[in-house]
Write a structure and sequence with these properties.
alpha+beta
């Protein structure tokens, strides 16, 4: 096996930068896919997906949760932007929902 063949094989077996950076992370993925909303049916918005990236290959990003496993896949050709999100724990979510209650509703 020549040195060039060995480098090609090595590159294929090494995890990608995407894989190393995002697999196992809770992320938001913005896609090039467009959706119409009921509020404004004339303006298309990008499809945005949130979840844990479970795996990725050249064709798809596989998403789901640690508890449920892979539940969806996004074709990599449609991905525009990926960012890691801080997943709020349950206590923060409870406090956040309490803060959203209007003062007049509390009376």
């Amino acid at each position: 096996m020549s040195g060039a063949d060995n480098m090609t094989t090595k590159r294929k077996t090494e995890p990608s930068a995407f894989f190393l950076s995002f697999v196992g992370e809770y992320v938001q993925v913005i896609t090039a896919l467009q959706m119409l909303t009921e509020e404004n049916p004339e303006k298309a918005l990008p499809l945005i997906v949130e979840g844990v990236i479970m795996d990725a290959d050249e064709s798809y990003i596989y998403m789901g949760s640690e508890a449920a496993g892979i539940k969806q896949a996004i074709k990599t050709d449609h991905v525009v932007f990926v960012q890691v999100l801080e997943k709020a724990d349950e206590v923060e979510e409870i406090f956040s929902s309490i803060n959203k209650v209007k003062k007049r509703d509390m009376n």
